[in-house]
Amino acid sequence: MSDSSIVQDEIDRFGAMAGDWWDPSGASAMLHKLNPVRLAYVRDQVDRHWQGDEQGLKPLAGRTALDVGCGAGLLAEPLARLGATVTAIDAAPGLIAAAQLHARGQGLDVDYRVSTVEALDGQYDLVTSMEVIEHVADPRAFVAALERRLAPGGLLILSTPNATGWSKLLTITLAEGVGAIPRGTHDFDKFIAPERMQALLADAGLQCIDVEGIAFSPTRGLHLSDDLRLNYLVAAVRA
């Protein structure tokens, strides 16, 4: 069993945030702001990929989903509400415990597991991993492990900060500097540019079918954009 994605310091750091993960004003406040933007992208890509009804309430009904690095379930719960049978994994036991508790309170059935993607079996129609790849030890091996979990005809969606000066300024210098993101969360040397991301996907036998930015403005806040400088999402399928 390979644990190539494991960086223990990262697990400990995020695990320490479990207690207030669901507090929109707590240590995970930025993730709460990011989540609706990411979810809008996921919904759009799901509708496109499976040519579903854009007005339908359960576009993932009858499909399986895997959320890798799920934290305490910010994305996994909406995926379940969209109709998916959801498995969600994280290497931090405290986060999984918080996720299980919150899901029960919401009446949601999500299969939460303390696991790495390398240790997991099975394949899933939709695989998501949001703001995770910049925290792993070996991005190439991590993407390859994600590909192994993707079912034939499936869809993979990732998000990550871009490796730009603008991203470093907003994410580390400003957001971490003022405490909007816990200090030490990010290492700029591990940020991944879209070109490198597409190469990692190609090396794993995946084809990138879409790239979209997450930008910030004082009037709109975080929003989907053609501007990739801050953060971006990618959708991929088997090549």
UniProtKB/TrEMBL annotation:
Q: What does this protein do?
A: O-methyltransferase that catalyzes the 2 O-methylation steps in the ubiquinone biosynthetic pathway.
User: Which keywords does this chain's UniProt record carry?
Assistant: Methyltransferase, S-adenosyl-L-methionine, Transferase, Ubiquinone biosynthesis
A GO BP entry is: methylation
Looking up InterPro entries in the UniProt record yields: Methyltransf_11, SAM-dependent_MTases_sf, UbiG_MeTrfase
Q: Which CDD domains match?
A: AdoMet_MTases
Pathway entry: Cofactor biosynthesis; ubiquinone biosynthesis
Give the species this sequence originates from. Answer: Sphingomonas sabuli
Q: What is this protein called?
A: Ubiquinone biosynthesis O-methyltransferase
Q: Which family does it belong to?
A: Belongs to the methyltransferase superfamily. UbiG/COQ3 family.
Taxonomically, which superkingdom?
Bacteria
Q: Which Pfam families match?
A: Methyltransf_11
Q: Which residues bind S-adenosyl-L-methionine?
A: R38, G69, D90, M130
Q: Which reaction does it catalyse?
A: a 3-demethylubiquinol + S-adenosyl-L-methionine = a ubiquinol + S-adenosyl-L-homocysteine + H(+); a 3-(all-trans-polyprenyl)benzene-1,2-diol + S-adenosyl-L-methionine = a 2-methoxy-6-(all-trans-polyprenyl)phenol + S-adenosyl-L-homocysteine + H(+)
Residue ranges of domain Methyltransferase type in the record: 66-158
**Gene Ontology terms for molecular function:** 2-polyprenyl-6-hydroxyphenol methylase activity; 3-demethylubiquinol 3-O-methyltransferase activity; polyprenyldihydroxybenzoate methyltransferase activity
- The UniProt record lists the EC number as 2.1.1.222, 2.1.1.64
